[in-house]
Amino acid sequence: MDASLWIAKTGLTAQQTRMQVISNNLANVNTTGFKKDRAVFEDLLYQNIVPAGGQADAQTQTPTGLMLGTGTRVVATEKLHGQGNIITTENALDIAIAGEGFLSVQQADGTVAYTRDGSMKLDAQGQLVTSGGEAIIPAIQIPQNAISVTIGRDGTVTAELANGGGAAQVGQINLSIFVNNSGLRPIGRNLMLPTEASGAAIVAIPGEAGSGMLMQGSLEASNVNVVERW
Asked: Distance between the two ends of the chain, CA-based, in angstroms?
């Protein structure tokens, strides 16, 4: 194959991958807590025909040399963990994270995953779970006779009990932070898993150790901006 055609092919392949990344971003513009991806390009090997500083003739050296590139490729996709807009929902069980951190949840197989999606619900046992049914860690049980639930900015969960039962603290929502958020592996369902690149989770009370604060009755929107230059 002619070298110029091969180089053009590498560019088309790389741009096709980039378009797939952009399409996925746009498809998730309304996904709660979604973080957009960016395709990372690198150039391929060069043919070093004449090295820079090489002898042009017996008396002179080439100032720049002659090096021919062989194309490009996408070497990585990177999650950009910028803050999404905070949207008020007026649902008492919805929580948005303003700042760093993830909610820890337990999957059906017992493994721990992490999410920015704070659209919480109660299951049949009154346990606080995600919209996908994963239980918050540590588990939080809302009493059956609770008439209202308050979630503080520091993650304290308080239930107002019926029949003059007063207020009772029923749990604590913690946040998990990572050294390298971009090293987390997305698995779908608004969940991510840690990897060696992300480092282990550091569990903190919201507002401590560099973690963000919780905002009750709100959700974090996707950080995808459909009008930005892609």
From this structure: 32
Phi, psi of 170 (to 5 degrees): -115, 0
- Cα dihedral sign for 176, 194, 187, 35? positive
Query: What b/e readout covers 70-100, taking b as 16+ CB neighbours within 10 angstroms?
Result: ebbebeebebebebbeeeebeeebbbbbbeb
Q: What is the spatial distance between Cα 38 and Cα 44, in angstroms, rounded to a whole number?
A: 19
Query: Cα separation of 191 and 198, whole Å?
Result: 14
CA separation (Å) from 154 to 98, 134, 186? 11, 22, 26
Examine the pLDDT at 186 and tell me if it is beyond 80: yes
**How far apart, in whole angstroms, are the C-alpha atoms of residue 13 and residue 114?**
32
Position 76, amino acid? A
Condensed to tens digits (0 to 9), the pLDDT of residues 11-45 reads: 999 999 999 999 999 999 999 999 999 999 998 88
Of 22-26, 59-63, 181-185, 207-211, the least confident: 59-63
Q: What is the pLDDT of residues 116-127, one digit of tens each?
A: 999 999 999 999
CA 175 to chain centre: 14
Rg of the chain taking only CA atoms, in angstroms: 25
CB-hemisphere CA count at 13 Å for 194? 19
What is the reported pLDDT for 152? 97
Residue 202: exposure state from Cβ atoms within 10 A (0-12, 13-18, ≥19): middle
pTM for the predicted model, two decimal places = 0.88
